[in-house]
Amino acid sequence: MIPVQKKPLSIPAKLSSESCLNNRRQIIGPPINKGKISAYYYGDTSVKEKLNELYYNKCAYCESLLDGFDVEHYRPKKGVTENTTHPGYYWLAYEWTNLLPACISCNQRQKGNHFPVNNSHKTIPSCNHLSEIIESDQKLNELYLSQEVPLLLHPEEQNFDPFDYFDFNLETAAIIVKKDLSKTDLKYKRADATIKIIGLDRDYLKTRRANIIIALSNEFLFHLSQLATGKIQLPDLQTIFYRLLAKLESNSQVNNEYAFFWQYLKTNALYLINLSVNNFIPDPRFQNLLIRRFQK
After folding, report:
1. What pLDDT is stored for residue 43 in this prediction?
2. 230-238 LR contacts (CB < 8 Å, sep 24+)
3. Do residues 259 and 64 lie in contact, with contact meaning Cβ atoms separated by under 8 Å?
4. What's the pLDDT score for residue 221?
5. Domain of life, per the record (predicted)?
6. Cα separation of 176 and 219, whole Å?
7. What is the pLDDT of residue 257?
8. What DSSP assignment string belongs to 79-101?
9. Which of 291, 249, 245 is nearest to 269 (CA)?
10. Within the chain, how many helices (H) and strands (E) appear?
């Protein structure tokens, strides 16, 4: 999950059309008519294309490249699993900041209608004294909805940074809650809920991350073996290490699949080097020499 910002002018015309606004009025009522919610609007090609562009053809949650995707409602439109009396956020069915591109695994197999909050759920739209909906209050980062304090993270939250919430166990390729967070910390609760609700630690994703780690480690181990057999010298290995850092930097760009994981690897590159060196070189004096060389 990487930070993304939607600019106000990026709203697809389909969602701001008079036809869509009229349809929303019919949904909101009174009476409430959730049967009027239609994928004709939120699932329109123009909406999907814009989401695809903003999220670089990746799932908003797990960052897997998409081969077709669901338009996900961050706040579920017809019901909430954690609150069986909740009617769902029917009034947000066409709200641009409530729509995300999501792979089938994250959306249908994992999230569904889950939407836990730290406070209480909003059950009706924010309206003025004339019972007219206050458009600005329906936005993700505005006070009205933010008062819920959702436990599920959203890539478009103001000042969102995945490094504030997550770490990875680089031995198992598991995503975990950031190590220095207390269980009573709101950030801990949000990270933990997001991992569980979206299934960010499902086998497929762990395997993809593990394969990245293995490929990087094997590449470095190969060059360590060349060093051990005298085919290259220590300065050559340092140059190779810099090339490895350049590879991490390149794959860390936001348009790449699993960019956040690559960014994490780049930040923790010395751990990977330590792991390779310790596994390959038994002499602790030479281990320390290598590590010091790479830290320069």
Report:
1. 96
2. 234/289, 234/290, 234/293, 237/290, 237/293, 238/293, 238/294
3. no
4. 77
5. Bacteria
6. 26
7. 98
8. -BTTBTT----GGGTT-GGGEEE
9. 245
10. 12, 4
Termini Cα distance of the chain: 31
Would the pLDDT of 243 be above 60?
yes
- Per DSSP bridges, beta strands 166-169 and 174-177 are antiparallel
pLDDT exceeds cutoff 80 at 293: no
State both tokens at 61: 């949650």
Contacts of 82 (CB under 8 A, 6+ apart): 114, 115, 116, 117
User: How long, in residues, is the chain?
Assistant: 296
pLDDT above 80 (res 125)? yes
Q: d(Cα 272, Cα 216) in Å, to the nearest integer?
A: 8
* Contact by Cβ (8 Å): 113, 71: no
The overall longest dimension of the chain from CA atoms, in Å, is: 82
Find the range with the poorest average confidence among 68-72, 172-176, 180-184, 257-261. 68-72
Instruction: Identify the helix (H) or strand (E) that includes residue 174.
Output: strand 174-177
